[in-house]
Amino acid sequence: MFKFTKNWSKDFDISIVLILIAGLIFRGAIAYWIAPGYDESYYYIYSHQLDWSYFDHPPMVALSTGLGTWITGISNQFTIRWGALLLYTGSLWLLYLTGKRLFNPYVAKLTLIIASIIPAFLLVFGIFTLPDVPLIFFWSASFYCAVSEFFRDAEPYRPTYRLAILGVLVGLTCLSKYHGFILGLGFVIFCLTIPRYYAVFRSGWLWLGLALFIITLFPLWYWNIQHDWVSFGFHLSKRFKTPKTFNILGVLGVVLGTILFMFPGLGLPLWWIMGKNLGQQIPTFFSRKAHRNRSDLADRQWLILCVSVPLIVGFSFVGGYYFVTPSWVLPGFWTPTLLLGYWMGQKSKRSAYRWLKYSGITIASLLLLALLHLNLGIFQKPSQYGLFGGIVAPLDDVSTEVLDITQLQQAFVDSPVFSAALANSQFIFTHTYFIGGLIDLAIYPLKPIPVTCFCEDPRGFAFWNDPQEWLGKNGLFITNKRFVEKPEVIEQYRPYFQEYQKLGEIPIKRGGVVTNIFYVYQGINFLKVYP
Q1: Which ranges does the record mark as transmembrane (predicted)?
Q2: Domain end position, chosen among 307, 332, 349
Q3: 283 lies in which domain range?
């Protein structure tokens, strides 16, 4: 049991450092072994196509992805994840410091452990190089700054310079992912709903913070001004342009998806504790007496809800109309881990640590099995490493979409035909943007050749190169087995070249069995710009 206290300056706890180091080593091992995903490879292109911003996302993911490759000069699945590994360690540290300031060291430690073992957090925020990585880092920094500003011993509350710093930090959060704007909205909601903080809106620090926020966003609005605000248009209209009827099953799908993704033993309690706390908080705003007599603890918990609930409820509602991946909602659950840590802190230490211990063991075991299957095919039938003869055939196994691109890269080194074709080509193209990233990560370290996408939805590829420069030059077309069975995919590019021929196939193996195939074509003399 613990006693709630505002005194957070305790003696240094070496166990916190050990938890952070152990988590970094565990995540580093996964990052080293697991093949790159489609999105990760796509963001790798950001890192060598540096710009003020990008079609899909703000610019921060380009920096976090490029960190490891710039330091080492090596581009592979491990180095592109260095930024994720380091930034998530920083995010955990900031979350721990926030827990100490909001509650006490014991709650902070429980929160740190919870955030360190939730599998969705590990993968999306701490291993894979995604926009969510810098998002959560600056989200954590912003929230810590807000807590330091709003919960000081001084009475009555007086705004300070931290509001200006908060403007910069929220701006950096927005430069990581557009979710950052919802974080800023959460801070506004908090100040509007707690009379003690009305003084914020009369403070010059707020207006300085707002000015710094706008200045910090310069890369985002500068790039969008140059490109007719196409990035905002894509996220606000084109992504959801097809009207659909609301379906409550879609909302339930988002809820269940997040519970499973976060591991039911932690995801379900997170939903429950948020719902319970929200149910206790809302009635106080409809009673003057209850609102006037709100406790300091209630305000601290309300701040957590203000920055979390709008994002979670918003995307859950959108899920009733459109498909929403659990990762879109996931950032909203980051700060509520503090509520779960507080709730667990009221239980006995033995039961709390036992819960976390067995949850951690189960999660680590499941992740290990998944990793072994992705790399060795232990559940694949057939496979050299199949357990009990294997379970699922490669054709029915969606995990074969995780491709070992080192085999693609090595084929261009070993094969005289592919090596000569690469040396004699000035660009590479494919027919869908997500394959383009994998191709670029495999080939770019061999030859810094531009990769593009000739399709209706080229995403960022539409802004990175000018196809006019390739007229009269040679190009390589690369695709994989998933699409080559459609002849129209291959043949649609024949009119754009004087000659167009198949060079060969590159099998991708797992467990000694071919699970996918890359197909390589060469076009001689590019005649006209696609389409």
Answers
A1: 12-35, 80-98, 110-130, 163-192, 204-225, 245-273, 302-322, 328-344, 356-374
A2: 349
A3: 14-234+262-349
